Amino acid sequence: MGHIKLTNVKKSFGAVDVIHDVNLEIEDGEFVVFVGPSGCGKSTLLRMIAGLDRPTSGDLAIDGKVVNTVPAADRGLAMVFQSYALYPHMSVRQNLAFGLENTRMPKDEIAARIAEAARMLEIEAYLDRRPGQLSGGQRQRVAIGRAIVRRPVAFLLDEPLSNLDAELRGSTRAELAALHARLAATMIYVTHDQVEAMTLADRIVVLRAGRIEQVGTPLDLYNRPANRFVAGFIGSPHMNFLEGTVEAAGPGRSVVALAGGQKLELPSTGMAGARVTLGVRPHHITLGRSESSLSAKLTLVEALGAETVLHADLSGQKILVVAPGQHDLAPGESIDLSLAAAPIHLFD
Amino acid sequence: MSGIVRFLTRRRGGKGWHWTDIVTWAWLIGGLLVMFGPAVWLVGSSFKSPAALAEFPPTILPYVTQKVTVEGYDKPLDLYEATLEDGSTAVLAEVRRIGVVSQMVDPKDPGEIVKVNIAKRTPVREMSFATDNYTEPFTHFDFVRYLWNSVFVTVTATLITLVVNSMAAFALSKYEFRGRTMAMLLILATLMVPLSVIMVPLYSIVSALGLFNNLWGVILPTVATPTGVFILRQYMLTIPDELVDAARMDKASEWQIYWRIILPLTAPALAVLAIFSVVWRWNDFLWPLIVLSRKELYTLQVGLSIYSGELNVQWHFILAMTVVTMIPVVLVFIFLQRFITTGIAGTGLK
Amino acid sequence: MRTHNSGKSSLGALVMAPIHFLMGILDAPLRWLQRATGIGGMAAFFLMPNMLIFGIFVLLPFFINFAYSMTGGTALFLPDRTFVGAGQYARLFDCRSYLDPGSCAEDTFWTAVKNTAWFVVLQVTLMILVSLVTALILNRDLAARSFWRAVFFFPVLLSPVVVGLIWKWILQRQGLLNFGLYGLGFDPHVWLNDRNWAFAATIGVSIWAHMGFYTLILLAGLQAIPKDLYEAAEMDGTRPARAFWRITLPLLMPNLLVVVVLVLIRAVQIFDEVYVLTGGGPGTSTLYLTQYIYETGFAAQLRNPGLAAAASILMGAVLVVLTLLQLGLGRSEKKGGRK
Fold this sequence. Notes:
The complex is a heterotrimer. Helices cover 24% and strands 36% of the residues of chain A. By secondary structure, chain A is of the alpha+beta class.
């Protein structure tokens, strides 16, 4: 149980359209991440699924039943909020129990569920404390616990890790993944952090300005971005984009003249004379001279130990290269870049 | 001791006395006397017997003329120190007074009447607190009833004020609906319509509702205070909306969200409003004076003013009742003064 | 958020238990209401009691007050009253000379207007002066400032009736004031039987009762002025008097304006403590507008609600002008920005 379907969902606040015609189907047990820059409508979409906001038009179905007019309380969903939204005047135990008491569940059943969730999340030790006495990470666990005890049809998580420090975020991410594996429940997770999206998701939904740009598995999105926006958004550091013009287009082989004059041979492109944008990931560029290599001037070298991040100027276009290992290079030097082995994405 | 003096007279920069320092201390000490003096004088007077109250010049502390029971006389007699014709003085009891002559007897030897000019005798006095002033109104007058009416009005009005205003503040802070700004403006606009402007029609409405000569007629018009809605709403705006969303996801009804989530979190603002409301309602005068015309319904304030306006004012009772009326407010002042003053400085309301 | 110790929380639980019970009982019907009307309906439900009370006890009287002012007779309820148009207003304004209340048909009204006008002018001026001086003094580097602040604040909480009685007791023939003067060799005087002294007493007593409140607002304004401004002025060799006129007063202006308007609005409506202190007397020397309205509408032998309503509308108009003045001043102050 936990199949969610959005059909032609639209939302506008006054004259401002924040969600345009979204169609999406989320399978039972799936971990779906909504990702996109702030203001893309991902939180609004989640709040509409939750029932906290009403869609302006379109249908929202949970397990085949249209729930447009069903209030949040009756949709059987649970939500983890960005601020955790723990009730500050209640103890952790009361926070966990509140939602269950509202369903008039027997007291021993409530106690059993709280005990189980507390064990799972290792929060037994501070069940009688108030949220104000807990650390950020502990509060986050309680927030998740409050959702778990409800045994919801689906979990909705609104940027649940954004208030944690970097280290805690990493470990909690792993725990969330484990939790999903264990509960096998549908989870919808909103974040602006593509690393969280890549590591957690079964499927990622990339949103921009109220529209779905692409839906797919993390590697789908990484390997086959549907457009330049998705390509730029997924992957870290960002993909390089190089402007150019197709000079000659032959069967299986064509030549692109990059802005600045250097030329690049590619397996296939569009028509001759067309202006194109080439996308190539920093990790896929190799250092070293070859017959098709490009020459660039280094502007900045960031030595990270295991790898070296090189910022370079390719005849007026900026390019970023991540080279494994350590390299004895300095800004101002010329380097040769080979794109021979790199998967190259073409955008119009 | 000198340390305390030095602390209290500490001045900026530790320089010599500037004329502004003298003005400051004169003003402060004067203020202390003028602000507390009258109330202290009232409290002191409230312990004096009617005879002592009628004296001029008055004494600072309550004194009464000593009385003795003398053999052969039913009532206790006043004791005087009299200067006799031979120049000696004796303590005698006055039997009766005829013109300027007082007929006195020696309490130890009551057989012989001594005549003394009243200018030549001074009463023998002792300090005595006339606690009758306090106990008698409680037994003989409607005072207990007034006290109860005042307590009933204050407590009921404050409770309703808290519930009604917090509900409105909740609606105005946590819901989006058309006309919300309009409702808020309407509420604030009522600040401009004081009682003195609408008392005639308000009286007719209260009468039409059958609330004339009814304590509810005093309570109901006061319970929807714009200031109350305003401070509660300002406070509720600081409670994150996500808490409301979380409660909705937790299957809480809107009513539960109000009383299990929002109300407990608004406790500090509710406390401020409760204190103000208690002081306001306890002190209300003009409206109860209009609505209540039956003696047994008077509040303390109305009862006091009616009694003090009578032709033959029984000051000894009035003073004692005034002191009792002051007590709750003085308690509020002592324990919550800091709380109130910061509240006023912060919001500018009274 | 601190943990409560068990004793306190169990006491709290005891107090809260009946409230919880009551609120819990209400939950079932209100859930039903929520199901029937949705969340929007619940917002209306929460707003309803307040709006109802405002509507019945503030807005409705406000509007029918105009109707009252255009009717005559002694009947209480509007339908029983006869329409007289602007008759009541005409009666109020029927004067041969507005400067002489004796020449007016409704001479007590004009006496009350004249008394109130004098009261407002004198009381507001003195109140502002006294509060400002007190605030300035409390803003000095004083030991135990909060104690001194409390001293001046004390009478604010007292009920007007108590205030009136305290001073009635002090100003009477055997009172404290005469006692003090007797000590200095003066004869006792019955202050409240003297027209001028009674008038002065109403001013003095109302200042005594309320100055603490305004002092508090002004003190808050003074404390909001950054100390480094004075230090900078001192470095520039500015004399304290000049610093007061050029720094303190301009920066205090917003608070001062609020206080002036508040004092004005309250002064126009003065009633309670004066009613207890002098009852408007001797004669009509301390009869102010609110008491005139009260007596005309309720207390007089032949009460005239229409006339009282007309007078109250005139007073309301003055109050609205004063309030708008405050709003206008506040806005221009904001527009002017920081100085």
